[in-house]
Amino acid sequence: MGSTYGWWAGVYQDNLYLNTDNYSHRSDNTKEIVTWGEMLGVGMPDDHERIVNWYKTNCVTSTGYDLPVHEAAMVAYNHFLDRWNFRSSFPTASRLFNEIGKKSYFFWQKIMENGRMSDANDFLVISGWESTMIENHSGIVDAHRNLRADPAILKQAMNPEVLVIRPKRLVLKPGELASVDIHLINEISRAGVQTLSVTAHNPDGSILFSQQTNVLVAGGDVFGQVLETDFTFRPTTGGTVLVEGALQAGDGTGNRLTNQVELLVFFPETLAAGWFADRFCVELAISDSAHRRGRRRDASGSRAQLPDGSADWLWPESRGAGGRRSLCD
Q1: Which terminus has fewer CB within 10 Å in the chain: N or C?
Q2: 227 confidence band (pLDDT: 50, 70, 90)
Q3: Are 36 and 127 in contact (CB under 8 A)?
Q4: By the 8 A CB rule, do 241 and 178 touch?
Q5: String of b and e for 31-42 (b: at least 16 CB within 10 Å)?
Q6: Which of 27-41, 107-121, 142-156, 296-310 has the lowest average pLDDT?
Q7: Where in the chain is the domain with CATH 2.60.40.1930?
Q8: 190 closest CA partner among 154, 230, 225
Q9: How far is it, in rounded angstroms, from Cα 97 to Cα 46?
Q10: Is CATH 2.60.40.1930 the classification given to domain 161-269?
């Protein structure tokens, strides 16, 4: 099923897990060795600030073939942070790149869980199209091998034992029904009757839902299995609903395995249509900017300066107003 998405998924989507029989990178092929060689992809910006600083620190500013590209991107991002007053949240551009990188690692965390909880799979490969002047498909590191975020996000999906809490949807309206399945990745020979508990907390911390049930863990050479399906509950208030799971031997001994996932509950109508596109539309076509300096223009004439003084990064004030056209249209 993974091939349905190509390499371009970009962000984790609910259609990557529909139910226990329909999710990306699931296989029921037990007759062959199953290898996933390119498991989707999520393009992320490099840490341009860190790369520029590396060139300068190592005195290779005259030979770094992609240095102008990273410098141009730095101008754009710094202008963006200053113009829209984001410095309190992101004092440096590197802080912003790190936060964006978390989206990438969250995506890979879920995809690797998908692959590992399907017992028929044998080998999994995170794809890694590196960032260059003509590509930005990027794997788990950027072109200078910098990690995009805290690797602990990825490590969580790589542990020998993982309790996978998989909602059918991560974003809901208040009053909509949430449904959660529980899978087990088991490479430590946990086996026998286990007690599984699932608890959902309202945004204020109060308990929205709690259920406990006994499950039978196969163990042995069964490394991925479905434990239980369709834990359902109905959030009624907006905010973040925390879903926690725990698994422990029925007699209360042994390791207690836990995990958690967050659901976002909100009214989409509260977001003014097009507001984000209007305010935060940024043209980041870095790969060809170095070859088209000064060619892009908007009606406001607003632009940032490249290191060589030429204008290229433009910041339209609005989309379509007064006949103006946004660069992101």
Answers
A1: C
A2: very high
A3: no
A4: yes
A5: eeebebeebbbb
A6: 296-310
A7: 161-269
A8: 225
A9: 7
A10: yes
Q: Which residue has the tokens 């608890």?
A: 199
Neighbour tally for 176: CB within 10 Å: 12
Q: Give the tokens for residue 265.
A: 């509950």
**Amino acid 184: pLDDT:** 98
pLDDT of 183 higher than 80: yes
The pLDDT of residue 115 is above 70: yes
Tokens 């039978």 locate to 216
3-state secondary structure of 56: helix
CA distances from 157 to 29, 60, 230 (A): 22, 38, 22
pLDDT in tens, 14-64: 999 999 999 999 999 999 999 998 788 787 888 999 999 999 999 888 877
277 sits in which H/E element: helix 275-280
Per-residue confidence (pLDDT) for residue 293, from 0 to 100: 33
Sign of CA dihedral 173, 174, 177, 183: positive
pLDDT at 311 over 90: no
